[in-house]
Design goal:
FAD/NAD(P)-binding domain; alpha+beta; binds flavin-adenine dinucleotide; globular; eight-stranded mixed β-sheet; 25% strand; six-stranded mixed β-sheet; 382 residues; 9 helices
């Protein structure tokens, strides 16, 4: 493969091989940078390996941020095509809630109206249409549910395949280097970073250091003396044993969310469980709260009868203080570039293109709302 000449001599060190670091390493190497990625475990060992991975632009105001997410879905499809990967499934998502839960039904209808106003295709279906034409293994009670919304441009992806696919292509096609090691320090030179220092003392010289360390981004920043405001919010996901059911779309059924998870497994998300993570430890598989979540899932997909939860995944979201991505050079360390976000599965391929464009002297306008400096300027005076 022929890489471009733009970044021919730049040494870019990317810290972290999750959805963000892997896709960015691929695009930067393709643009001609000498990319070294450093990962302390393996591709997708962090949040990317424990995510619901719904590709979506729902409830993501303002409109420019919604658009960023919608373009992110398209860019994930393009990237998978380019890499010959089969990990992206833009088959739509289904959303319903019982009429009795008036507040939630109204909120859902509002979100759908906004999507439609912003140019997304959303179909309002009856429960019968869904179970007859789209998802025969799903049960929706027509006596309790008025409408099922089908969001067409939504879906899910296999995040481990994405991170591994993008990283291995960066290495094989464009000569990127992948080092397994822990970034434990940064050697400063004036206002910038001269080298990234690994736990074993190895130094890797850098012109630009990209912080793609997800929920550990604040720690990586601190190594360079920079302050980054990222909260860590945990989330629990349940993976079923292989089940004799077919689910083609992501399903949001009010109290429980489901999606396919490969190998005939389903992934089950029950958001109230997220608050049951204590001191970084998920509730165990045998806990009654997991059994209760599985019962809710069986109510939606009756074919799960007799199928048990096989595993729990505990993910930690990197949540910037205002909920929006942090993308750009650090205000205090001139060659430290952050790419930290929630919804990183939806956004990774778009951000990889935009960051590569910025670092090759192109248009930076789409990234301006997300600069790291916005927090510093909001700090109280004096
Ligand atoms: C429960 C849950 C549900 C979610 N649902 C969705 C969803 O439906 N849709 C969506 O778009 N997003 C979702 N997200 C968010 C999404 O998963 C994340 O935004 C995304 O995975 C972040 O990827 P990342 O590459 O930034 O971070 P990570 O995947 O965490 O990658 C960071 C990598 O850096 C490495 N690292 C860290 N520190 C160092 C160091 N010092 N030295 C070397 N390596 C280091 C880690 O090992 C890790 O591999 C969800 C997250 C959670 C937890």
């Amino acid at each position: 493969m022929v890489a471009s000449d733009h970044l021919r001599d730049a040494r870019v060190v990317v810290v972290g091989v999750g959805a963000i670091g892997s896709t960015l390493a691929y695009r930067l190497a393709q643009a001609g940078a000498r990319v070294t990625t450093i990962e302390r475990a393996h591709a997708a060992a962090g949040t990317t390996g424990a995510t619901f991975a719904w590709l979506n632009g729902l409830d993501k105001p303002p409109r420019a941020y919604h658009r960023l997410n919608m373009l992110g879905i398209r860019d994930q499809e393009d990237l998978a095509d380019e890499l010959g990967g089969d990990w992206v499934h833009v088959t739509g998502s289904l959303h319903w809630t019982e009429r009795a839960d008036g507040a939630r039904a109204a909120g859902m209808a509002r979100g759908m109206r906004q999507l439609i106003e912003w140019g997304a295709r959303v179909d309002r279906l009856t429960p019968e249409q869904v179970t007859r034409d789209l998802e025969p293994d799903v049960q929706i009670d027509p006596a309790a549910v008025d409408a099922v919304w089908l969001v067409e441009r939504a879906g899910w992806l296999d995040p481990v395949a994405l991170a591994h696919g993008a990283m291995s292509a960066a290495v094989a096609r464009y000569g990127a280097e992948l080092i397994h090691g822990e970034v434990a320090g940064m050697r400063r030179d004036g206002d910038g970073i001269a080298a990234v220092v690994l736990a074993d003392g190895t130094e890797i010289g850098a012109d630009v250091v990209v912080n793609a360390a997800g929920p550990d981004a604040s720690g990586v920043s601190a190594l360079a003396g920079a302050v980054l405001q990222v909260e860590r919010t945990p989330g629990i996901l349940i993976v079923t044993a292989p089940a004799p059911v077919r689910l083609g779309r992501v399903a949001f059924a009010g109290d429980v969310n489901l999606r396919p998870d490969g190998g005939s497994r389903l992934m089950v998300q029950r958001e109230p469980l997220d608050t049951d993570v204590i001191d970084g430890t998920a509730i165990p598989l045998g806990d009654p709260r997991i059994a209760a979540a599985m019962e809710l899932a069986r109510h939606v997909v009756p074919g799960l009868a007799g199928v048990e939860a096989e595993g729990i995944r505990l993910g930690v979201r990197a949540m910037p203080k205002d909920g929006y991505p942090i993308v750009g050079f650090d205000p205090a360390v001139f060659n430290l570039y952050h790419v930290i976000t929630h919804s990183g599965i939806t956004l990774a391929a778009r951000l990889a293109l935009l960051v590569t464009e910025e670092l090759t002297g192109g248009d930076t306008a789409p990234l301006e709302p997300y600069r790291p400096g916005r927090f510093a300027s909001a700090a109280p005076a004096g």
